[in-house]
Amino acid sequence: MPGAVSRFAKIAAIAVLTSATVFAAYGEAEARRAGGGFSSFGSRGTRTFQAPPATRTAPAPAAPVERSMTPQPQTTAPSMAQPGVAAQRPGGMFGGFGRSMVGGLIAGGLLGMMLGHGFGGGFGFLGLLLQIALIFGAITLAIRFFANRRQPSYGSAGGPSYSNMSSNNNSSFRIPTIGSGATATGPQRNNQRPSDEIGLAQADLDQFEELLTEVQTAYGAEDYGTLRKLTTPEAMSYLAEELGENATNGVRNRVSDVKLLQGDIAEAWREDGLDYATLAMRYSSIDAMVERDSGRVVSGDDQRPTESTEVWTFVRKNGADWKLSAIQGTEQRAA
Question: Is 56 in contact with 157 (CB distance < 8 Å)?
């Protein structure tokens, strides 16, 4: 019987260690999805890895750019890191205190087993079960504690909002002077406010609205030629990659009836002879993933429109037409 208990203790130790690894991996996967679940890619020039200002359309932070050909700047001191970034530790929810606590409990049990007492110590099989329960409870508490710490608190964002109100030109964007809209109560996130350093005109906003519809429609139709005309080579490479993955998996993303509902200018600036404009856009569309052969809906809804909020960046050179340069998701979800 003691031999059987010892073998069971070893199996239990392996199971606990495996569970801890699984929970850690789950935490990292959740962090990667913190940006709203959208693929964030492209370039915003020297501001690629800076969060754009929050707006009324997108008060939640935009997801960080995950894929970009722009070199990421290296920080040489913790004080140079953005607020909140320096406080984050590698390893997800099992960084710092959580990892030490769980690791200490597991290590203590393993040490007891190595000394011949097993995971149960002097209490035998009952003690073994008790320690396993305590370790599992500690892991669960650590998960909840650090998950709650990762949830940010969002305040209302200031800046002008351009809603889809009736007008002569039927544009969903309106341009009052930047900052002249009704201000929101509470501090602006990261002390950033929407700014327009190049003076966007109504014709620019109309083109942004057209690009939203044309890019989404071309993507749903897998029209590579049109996408190349509407996007930068870098953005096109990521869109083509996604379309290729869909084809490999035997599905296609059917998108139609794209309609801009509300838009805000987050920031617009000029650098190295290029104009950049980052805008938050809330739009509706019929969006569904379907099987390529049968047309069966795998995910989404091919009958009713759903709403999405994303942050798009456009770029132009020497007064040429605007092109899509980057897309970032947000944490917002439509009701």
Answer: yes
